[in-house]
Amino acid sequence: MTDKAINVLFLCTHNSARSILAEALMNHLGQGRFKGYSAGSSPRDNQQPNPLGLQTLQKAGISTDGLCSKSWDEFALPNAPHMDLVITVCDNAAGEVCPYWPGQPATAHWSYADPSAGDGTEAEKLEAFRQTLHAIRRRLELLTSLPAASVSKLMLQTSARELAKS
Residue ranges of the domains in the chain? Predict the structure, then answer.
């Protein structure tokens, strides 16, 4: 696994907030060793990334280029990139039956509250996105700091699942 980028797919229900934040942040922190992707189990028709999520990423200096909401079915197709690790980032997606992932990637669940839920002021909503981004960053910094020589499928799964406890 050390001679190519480690592909990580982040899943949520609509692929508009948490999974988008995780994808962008993984690509920011991954430095070519890790490549982030995101998808949703049931994105709405014409679903787009949440504008407050994009604003939060931009304020943090993280690129939003190419971010778009998509179905997880895209990653089960034969020509899709093979994933090494699949992480659900919302409890709803974690409880759903996932498609077959080519290569049988390692899996983990990291639970985050939905920053787009609720009826707060715009400042309160932005703060919720900022806090979610910060929580995801803590785990991804630890994951991306794993020594290259010791990254294996089992080690990825074990590490990702242990990070869920932090």
Answer: 6-163
3-state class (DSSP) for residue 9: strand
Please give the radius of gyration of the chain, using alpha carbons only, rounded to the nearest integer. Answer: 15
- Altogether, the residues listed in the chain come to a count of 166
Q: Which pLDDT band holds residue 150 (cuts at 50, 70, 90)?
A: low
Stated as kind and residue range, the H or E segment containing 12 is strand 6-12
Would you say 1 and 146 are in contact if contact means Cβ atoms under 8 Å apart? no
Count of beta carbons in the 10 Å neighbourhood of residue 12: 29
Mean pLDDT over 100-123 rounds to 87
Q: Which of 133, 153, 158 is nearest to 1 (CA)?
A: 153
Q: Is the pLDDT of residue 3 over 70?
A: no
Type and span of the H or E element at 137 = helix 122-144
Q: Whole-model pTM?
A: 0.88
Number of helices (H), then strands (E), belonging to the chain: the values are 5, 4
What is the third-level CATH fold of 6-163?
A: Rossmann fold (3.40.50)
- Residue 127: count of CB within 10 angstroms of its CB: 15
CB-count exposure of residue 21 (10 Å: 0-12, 13-18, 19+): buried
